[in-house]
Structure prediction request, 305 residues.
Amino acid sequence: MTNIEKIRQIIARKKLWDKTFAVIGLLSMLVGIFTLFALIIDLAIDGIPILSWQFFTSFPSYKPEQAGILSAWVGTTLVMLVTGIAAIPLGIAAAIYLEEYAQKNWIADLIEINVTNLAGVPSIIYGLLALGLFVYKLNLGESILAAGLTLALLILPIVIVTTRESLRAIPNNIREAAYALGASKWQMIWDHVLPYSIGGILTGIIVGLSRAIGETAPIITIGALTFIAFLPDAPIKGEFPYISFSWLMSPFTVMPIQMFNWVSRPEPEFQLNAAAAGIVLIVMTLAMNSLAIYLRYLFRKNIKW
Prediction:
């Protein structure tokens, strides 16, 4: 056998292994996708008949036919609003400092290792931390503000890590070109690095918020209510100063807790209500992600390569 034939056999074996791995990867992906679709279809079959205007505008009730998710979806919206306002600017600013300003020494390496490890900490640990810090030390109580800050702590490492990776992916040529034109460091970051890395940053925000909206353990730990028949004060009022922040200190519940409450009940009608609430939660998550994807598309569209 000549050397050329041996090389051809080696190449053929490599191609066979490549094709085998591709088939295994495709089958693994299809199993996950089909399982997800099967669960969503089963959820939709049980929950869609329950969805109605009354279901969205009614408070929870001990009677399944009268129970609704008004307080749950309002609470989820307000908590996620606080979470986004607290975590997104802080996470991006921390990532910019660590990547662009901080000196590359053992302290920076230690911070990077700890931030990366925090992204994998179980959510119940953040709940216990928030219980001691926000509820007891800062006296925020069982409020929307405490819940939003708790979830902000939960997703903060994710935002920092993904933002740093997006900043690292920008070639140094862009930075050097900005400096060559007389830009300061902040002008280089704001006008050149951030616009090119905004896609990856928004991807990290999507992942973080998607995790936060479905969390239950840290919210229960800080004392979220499982049954609530009133709404927080409105953020916008008809009289001056028109904006109110009293809703931040209001008691609350969220969609996952409402679902858990219904699932734990023995009546089968409550199980259907939980399925309908699950559909609403999925739609809320998809709507939030769609907004972030649309913003990412707008930013990329305005970038001139």
Notes: The mean pLDDT is 84.
